[in-house]
Design goal:
homodimer; about 150 residues; alpha+beta; 3 helices; about 40% strand; elongated
């Protein structure tokens, strides 16, 4: 009887945990897709609005990790209104979460004019004081870049 | 008086929080440096021992995100005993943490023979049931790769 009770509690806890994680996963993927859709039309504010003040950032165009929302907002201005992605596929997004932090990883295939880009992406989200998920770390890199 | 008490409580809480974060930061950077030093001598087990079962992984040599410790251990075998890094500098490591999850980011300059490699790196650590930090996400990418 005790064993049964224990198993039931474990199962309920596990189900609650999985349920909570599924909800976090859905919420984070929706946030990312929404920001990405805006980015693909040249609207940089979709991402900037969900970046935390202490965000750290990597992409293949910069020399070193970029730290802080101020610098990143300044850096993003060059793309404002200048992106026209015609096709975009987020491949196999996966979220690994605890209560107040979560990591989203995916591959991305995007097409702009004649160019096809294949990306690796890691986003780390953290819950802020107002209970909203904000990105604290972004890492974009090319899939198998051919070095000169 | 009430205001003073409030300020004191806030300051104590903040100090305790900073203290805890500093300790997490030190612990995580030490873990990473130890694994990296073993890697630089061709010992792949330093990293494998601190990877979680559900690790997800990106580097510039693979087509798509790699999922799970089994696949990653298999992939790493090709480097066992074959790495001889002579110089290695972890540049500006930074840890952003909550109680049971933390993200470590840094740039890395490493030298092997005549080759100099410049890397971006993101590691996400999560506390496991035994209270040990394990890596659940690794993302290595080249700094400014020159595309063919």
């Amino acid at each position: 009887m005790k064993t049964l009770l224990f198993i039931s509690i474990v199962m309920i806890t596990h189900t609650a945990y999985s349920q909570e994680n599924m909800e976090i996963s859905k919420e984070i993927i929706t946030l990312e897709k929404t920001a990405l859709e805006r980015w693909n039309r040249g609207d940089i504010m979709g991402y900037i609005n969900i970046y935390a003040e202490d965000i750290v950032y990597f992409d293949p165009m910069i020399d070193k990790r970029m730290d802080g929302l101020n610098k990143l907002s300044e850096y993003y201005k060059q793309w404002e209104g200048k992106i026209h992605i015609t096709e975009c596929e987020m491949i196999d997004p996966k979220v690994q979460a605890v209560d107040n932090m979560a990591v989203l990883t995916f591959n991305l295939r995007s097409v702009e004019g004649m160019h096809v880009y294949n990306w690796n992406c890691t986003e780390v989200y953290r819950k802020d004081e107002g209970n909203s998920w904000k990105i604290i770390q972004t890492h974009w890199s090319y899939v198998k870049p051919s070095l000169k």
